[in-house]
Design a protein that fits this description.
Elements lengths: L11 E3 L2 E3 L3 E3 L15 H12 L4 E6 L13 H17 L3 E6 L17 E2 L3 E3 L4 E5 L2 H21 L3 E5 L5 H6 L14 H4 L1 H14 L4 E7 L10 H11 L5 E5 L6 H7 L11 H9 L6 E3 L6 H9 L5 E4 L1 H5 L3 H6 L14 H9 L13 H7 L8 E5 L3 H12 L3 E5 L19 H16 L3 E3 L6 H6 L4 E4 L3 E3 L13 E2 H4 L9 E5 L3 H12 L3 E6 L10 H12 L4 E5 L2 E6 L3 E5 L5 E5 L2 E4 L3 E3 L2 H6 L5 E4 L12 H14 L1
Parallel strand pairs: 3-13, 4-5, 5-9, 6-8, 9-10, 10-11, 11-12, 12-13, 14-15, 14-17, 15-16, 17-28, 19-26, 20-21, 20-26, 21-22
Antiparallel strand pairs: 1-2, 7-8, 18-27, 23-24, 24-25
Helix pairs in contact: 1-2, 2-3, 3-6, 8-20, 15-16, 15-22
Length: 649
């Protein structure tokens, strides 16, 4: 029995296949494929690293989507070597190899289907791209079921242990099950039993092809979070229909293709951790005997352990958590929880891939680049005496990385605490994941062997006197203060300062600036009971946010009636620390009175350290926000540059 998380790290067996714990790596897409849809070496390295990290199951993702792995069973000679290599890489790490099989149905890309028309439960015209979807015939259903079986058989030949049939989230099989999509009037529409016929056909066809020993998982939505969509009551009945036909039932939620529901499938920071567990718990409570897997914003071993201990699920699956730290299982099993790099639920991974075809992680610089970074991190030729200036995210990451590589590292922070701008997370419950990141960065710097000096200002003389051979400048940024009359009034405070002065703000609060800092501060203040108005000169708010984060934020705004947005207003002046005069696009003045005013009008580079220290040592590297003319970075970018700097030493 594991001393730290006994339920999470309990082994179990299904049909003779032994699982080393109850933590599964859920499927995710990454972009490292060639023009044929086959994985490049760095994709294989990505899955190999996750398998080494300790999860019981590691898996790939395949779908009728240009970003997904191509399981072309018509060309086994071409695709089998790649599949076999991924399966072997997963097995080498001690994990069970699985692979998700999906069909996008009415949302399929013609480009991924050799120009063929998409198919779905009903005829449908896609007004967003002018593509006509054709309603499937029984022959189509038979063909698709055969294709699923062909793909599963190919996986079995390649050495996989399992496959995951995706029947949720608004993709083809769910399109038949869901009353939102399926309005057929024949034998495949109407009642739940009719709507379930095609998904059951696929399951039966796959089982017939691969046999009983090859395990089958099935992903379903416990609720589509849509008024006319699949609800938990019917989802439970469907789970009973597939009970015993499959070996695991994954219970998720939401609809991937529908933006408001997609952020329920992939819960943002604006939703509770484990928000979808209740659906898996309902399936378990209904007496389903097949092991039930839950997923959705579960990013701490404590929460995973609690879910299992309370009997809400048999297994916990994680996607983003294992992208942020593939060694989460290993660290948790050894009680090294402070060393786990926490997932921020920012969705830079998925949204970045959707918008720029670029897979990345805000907190794990090597995600998707394991092979290249492994080569990058060669043994240090000459160890150096290194000074890191600044104890924010960039400096902490740089100090820890440089010290772990063997350098003699000193980190100097001019204030009395580490964390930089992230210190405000000590007060904001919405920022619990970012607070965990701050604490993690501090912990890693402390245990790395770096010497940490607080209340220490660095001068060129200090660098020379202590013989530093390399300096990493990570002095951070400062709050921007445009020349607005009244902004210098001491009663007008920056947003991050407002967290410590809630009792002095009064009921009505103006937040000047509708970027992410202003928006998220305003949301916190509104949830703390204040009547908050965001004043933003642009037509919209949070333009720098990825679409999934912004969608989640706007849903949270809609649920907070005491939070208001006044966009398209440029602040002209502030009087008496409380009265704001703002001008609209037509030049009309708006005089608005509040109890207090706080501002979040962007950040500016802190160039003092750069200008004074750049020539103080043989090697000086500036990272983050301390370069002239460089736009201040997000936490992700700052940490990445800190990591790069440490690797360049």
């Amino acid at each position: 029995m594991n001393a730290y998380y006994p339920h999470l790290f309990e082994t179990f067996s299904v049909k003779g296949l032994t699982f080393r714990n109850r933590l599964f790596s859920a499927p995710n897409m990454i972009c490292q494929m060639d023009e044929n849809g086959y994985p490049m070496p760095d994709m294989i390295a990505y899955y190999a690293e996750k398998a080494r990290g300790g999860a019981a199951v590691d898996r790939e993702h395949a779908a009728s989507n240009p970003r997904s792995f191509c399981l072309d069973w018509t060309k086994p000679v071409a695709v089998l070597p790649y599949l076999s290599e991924i399966a072997m890489a997963i097995h080498e790490g001690g994990a069970i190899a699985s692979h998700e099989l999906n069909h996008a149905g009415m949302y399929a890309s013609p480009a991924a289907n050799h120009g063929g028309e998409p198919i779905g439960p009903v005829d449908f015209y896609r007004d967003w791209d002018g593509v006509q979807v054709r309603a499937m015939t029984e022959k189509d259903m038979d063909d698709v079921a055969e294709h699923f079986a062909n793909a599963a058989e190919l996986l079995k030949r390649a050495g996989y242990d399992m496959c995951l049939i995706h029947g949720g989230h608004g993709w083809l099989l769910d399109q038949f099950l869901s009353p939102h999509y399926n309005t057929r009037t024949d034998a495949y529409g109407g009642s739940l039993e009719n709507r379930a016929k095609f998904p059951l056909m696929v399951i039966d066809r796959v089982r017939e092809r691969v046999g009983d020993k090859f395990l089958i998982e099935y992903r379903m939505s416990g609720c589509e979070e849509l008024e006319d969509g699949l609800q938990i009551e019917e989802a439970v009945e469907f789970a009973k229909l597939i009970d015993g036909k499959v070996d695991f039932i994954h219970v998720s939620a939401g609809l991937d293709p529908e933006e408001p529901q997609a952020v329920r499938t992939h819960p943002t920071m604006f939703l509770p951790h484990g928000v979808n567990v209740r659906y898996a718990a309902a399936v378990k409570a209904a007496g389903v005997k097949t092991p039930v897997v839950t997923i959705g914003a579960i990013n701490t071993p404590e929460l995973a352990e609690q879910i299992l201990a309370e009997g809400k699920a048999d297994i916990v699956a994680m996607t983003r958590t294992l992208i942020a730290d593939p060694h989460f299982p290993e660290k948790a099993s050894q009680g090294r929880t402070k060393e786990i790099t926490p997932c921020l639920r920012c969705l830079d991974c998925l949204a970045g891939m959707q918008t720029t075809e670029h897979f990345q992680c805000s907190v794990n610089p090597s995600a998707g680049r394991e092979l290249r970074y492994r080569n990058f991190a060669q043994p240090v030729g000459k160890l150096k005496k290194v000074l890191v200036v600044g104890g924010g995210p960039a400096g902490l990451r740089a100090a820890a990385t440089a010290a772990q590589r063997g350098h003699d590292v000193t980190l100097c922070e001019r204030s009395d605490r580490l964390g930089g701008f992230l210190t405000f997370t000590d007060y904001d419950d919405l920022k619990i994941d970012l607070w965990r990141l701050k604490e993690h960065l501090i912990h890693m710097a402390e245990i790395s062997g770096a010497k940490i000096l607080l209340n220490t200002a660095v001068t060129p003389q200090y660098v020379r006197d202590n013989g530093f051979e390399a300096v990493i400048l990570a002095a951070g940024s400062l709050a921007a203060k445009p020349p607005i009359p009244g902004l210098d009034d001491p009663r007008v405070q920056h947003a991050t300062v407002a967290y410590t002065q809630l009792d002095r703000l009064g009921r009505r609060v103006a937040v000047l600036g509708g970027g992410l800092i202003g928006c998220e501060t305003a949301l916190f203040l509104a949830k703390s009971g204040h009547e908050v108005t965001i004043i933003e000169m642009l037509p919209g708010i949070a333009p720098e946010a990825n679409w999934m984060h912004k969608e989640g934020m706007m849903q949270a705004f809609a649920e907070t009636p005491n939070l208001h947005v006044r966009a398209g207003l440029k602040v002209a002046s502030i009087r008496d620390g409380s009265t704001v005069t703002a001008v609209d696009a037509d030049g009309n003045e708006n005089v608005l009175t509040f109890d207090s005013v706080i501002y979040a009008l962007g950040l500016r580079s802190n160039m003092d350290a750069y200008e004074s220290l750049f020539y103080s040592a043989p090697q000086v590297i500036a990272v983050g926000d301390c370069l002239r003319g460089v736009k201040p970075k997000k936490t992700r970018e700052a940490m990445l540059e800190g990591y790069w700097a440490a690797m360049r030493l």
